[in-house]
Specification:
Chains A, B: One of its GO terms (molecular function) is acyltransferase activity, transferring groups other than amino-acyl groups. Chains A, B: This is Thiolase domain-containing protein. Chains A, B: It holds the Pfam family Thiolase_N. The structure is a homodimer. Chain A has helices spanning about 25-40, 55-60, 65-70, 90-105, 125-130, 135-140, 145-160, 165-180, 195-200, 260-275, 290-300, 310-315, 330-335, 340-355, and strands at about 5-10, 45-50, 80-85, 110-115, 200-205, 205, 215-225, 235-245, 285, 365-375, 380-385. Chain A is an alpha/beta fold. The first copy, chain A, has a domain at about 5-120 and about 215-230: Peroxisomal Thiolase, Chain A, domain 1 (3-Layer(aba) Sandwich), CATH 3.40.47. The first copy, chain A, has a 9-stranded mixed sheet, sandwiched between helices. In chain A, α8 packs across α11 (about 290-300). The longest helix of chain A is centred in the N-terminal third of the chain and has 16 residues, at about 25-40. β3 of chain A pairs antiparallel with β3 (about 80-85) of chain B.
């Protein structure tokens, strides 16, 4: 990178079913909170990025970055507003493009945001829109929706490595427990493995409580050149690396359906760029759109050996208080998963942790990873963030 | 910018109604042509950007940058693939983000592409998808589609400045004439003003031949650091500036409906960055999605005084051979307008002109502007490109 970059402000709405609030309201709330947190005025913003998967289908609106710039009062300032999309990795892309924009020297103060309004459609229409993250021609027309495709991965992982149904349940149990301290989470109730396993199958072996919910919500962060960061706040968070990788969109074309190569490729590059190894990571926010996704992430990010992710979680090593806490926020499962917002929300939560003001706080965390996946793994974004103690 | 950037390869499909070719086929054709033109192999590509407005609605597919990376054989290399969207300025965003990516130092060889497959839907569905570039809640629900909103601008411009129906016709006449030498254009037939004025009203005073068509097509360019450009090709084109601005999404919230402030704001920044004035520009590719759009562009880019754009075009000053040729390619009107592809196609055509190998060639052109608009003006991207003679 030509310039290093830091996060100086974060904000989000509560995630959930916001029947009474519009797409644009959600964004503005998150954006204003991030600006207030950074102590930045609207007239200081040089550019903004908006991660959004499917407003075209959910609310029949494209051109949404200009729309949110307009509602945030930035359009009349001519602030460039760029929507980025890679299914539910759209938020991760928004953060990464904001970092590249500052690194390029084109901008100094950039807002990265993500927003999705999913609950305006019925569930059939919502599921059909979601299927647009998979390959419509080769997977969806043949009956493969996203849940079914993750179910294939789960089944293969169980067969090859002995991952158990109970280990999948423990992902949901842990993430609900972590979310109990998170005031922005959609679900703050605890659940037991027995409850998870009593919910109906969505796509065997995955049950309803293996799935993140449909959610409305928005998140935003403010990034600036690292050298200027302490002029804004006392506790900036430094972007040690932001990397993105692609893989085949279809699951059947993958090298191995028990791993997401896009995650491991992006992670490898990010660790090299940041000069860290997986053992240096104190905690992680990962993409558990389905519980199996967290098992894969724990392995593909290098916290556990391939095949041992389920056990790692089941043994409490991914819990707050354990070796490498995973999803201390509650993850997508309990925070909710407004598709385009999630990748930004992960950075918001990692920043709160690194500042020491998270709802469910990790002790002595100074280096974090966030991992955001598009669809079944066609895209992954991996960021390494730190409190600067190790820089 | 931290690093200067150059274009070393361009490619496109013919624009038109490609009933026999899919979205992914179109992109791959354009991408391969751009790589061949640059003499770059797929394994040299560090990142790609894809401009696309509405695949979610046109072909019910999101996550399209990963899809096209996959079909281009780049996904298994893990190449980051980022879709950007701002209605029909999506291609302009793709080019700009590719430039920022190289400028940031994150990547050295980046492909910017744009693609749209519009003809798979019926015209009612297509028009409804297009309306997603305007404000669905405040404009479209009230009956204001994009053509109607441009018609308001045209009527106001006629009333205030005396712009005539004949001057609007001359935009179409000139652009069809220019396209007659362009092998990639959708329409290479010449039309007379009388023919334009005999076509039915779409939204009075705009007639069918004031409107760019619905098109399928793709375009791609390869960008690299300027300092490396001559290692790829003998005739690189240098990016002197790339700027983007927003304005209110709704036309009724604009400062003035006879101008696109997003264009003039982006142009002002781009001229300052490139250290050029409008008088230094030898030719321009501008956004004539409706004929009035070219009149506004000629004014907002500073080639003519406000209110005098119609006369400028009618007097032949915007024709090849005139003072500042505008749309020597044929523009959106005659090239066709596959929404997400257009902003990239403009860079392709400007590059061909600057190299001296365009179908309808401008004499002694060494500095070009491209201007790409989203919807009715909520977004504009303005690039200044040169052959390096003035650098």
């Amino acid at each position: 990178m030509q310039r290093n970059v830091a996060v100086v402000g974060v904000g989000q709405t509560a995630f959930g079913e916001h029947w009474e609030r519009s797409f644009r309201d959600l964004f503005v709330t998150a954006g204003v909170r991030a600006l207030e947190d950074a102590g930045v005025g609207g007239d200081e913003i040089d550019a903004m990025y908006g991660g959004n998967m499917s407003a075209g289908q959910f609310i029949r609106q494209e051109h949404v970055a200009a729309l949110i710039a307009d509602y945030a009062g930035l359009a009349t300032e001519g602030v460039p507003a760029t929507r980025v999309e890679a299914a539910d990795a759209s938020g991760g892309l928004a953060f990464r493009q904001a970092v590249l924009d500052v690194a390029s020297g084109a901008s100094d103060v950039v807002v990265a945001s993500g927003v999705e309004k999913m609950t305006d459609l019925g569930s059939d229409e919502t599921n059909d829109a979601l299927a647009g993250s998979a390959d419509r021609e080769w997977e969806v027309f043949g009956g493969g929706n996203v849940a079914a495709l993750y179910a294939l991965m789960a089944r293969a992982h169980m067969n090859r490595y002995g991952t158990t149904r109970r280990e999948l349940s423990q992902v949901a149990v842990k993430n609900h427990r972590h979310a109990s301290g998170n005031e922005y989470a959609q679900y703050t109730n605890e659940v037991s493995a027995e409850v998870v396993e009593s919910t109906p199958y969505v796509a065997e072996p995955l049950r309803a409580f293996d799935c993140s919910p449909a959610s409305d919500g928005a998140a935003a962060v403010v990034v600036v050149p690292a050298e200027d960061a302490t002029a804004y706040v006392d506790d900036p968070v430094y972007v040690e690396a932001t990397e993105q990788a692609s893989d085949s969109l279809t699951v059947h074309d993958r090298r191995d359906i028990t791993a997401l190569d896009a995650t491991s490729e992006a992670a490898e590059r990010a660790y090299a760029e940041a000069n860290f190894s997986p053992g240096d990571i104190d905690f992680a926010e990962v993409h558990d759109s389905y519980t199996i996704g967290e098992v894969l992430a724990v392995e593909d990010l290098g916290f556990a050996e391939k095949g041992e992710g389920g056990g790692f979680i089941d043994e409490g090593r991914a819990s707050v208080g354990g070796e490498t806490p995973v999803n201390p926020s509650g993850g997508l499962k309990a925070c909710g998963h407004p598709l385009g917002a999630t990748g930004v929300r992960q950075v918001v939560d990692a920043t709160r942790q690194l500042r020491g003001d998270a709802g469910t706080q990790v002790e002595d965390g100074s280096v974090a990873v966030t991992q955001n996946v598009g669809g079944t793994g066609g895209t992954a974004v991996v960021n390494v963030l730190s409190d600067g103690g190790s820089v």
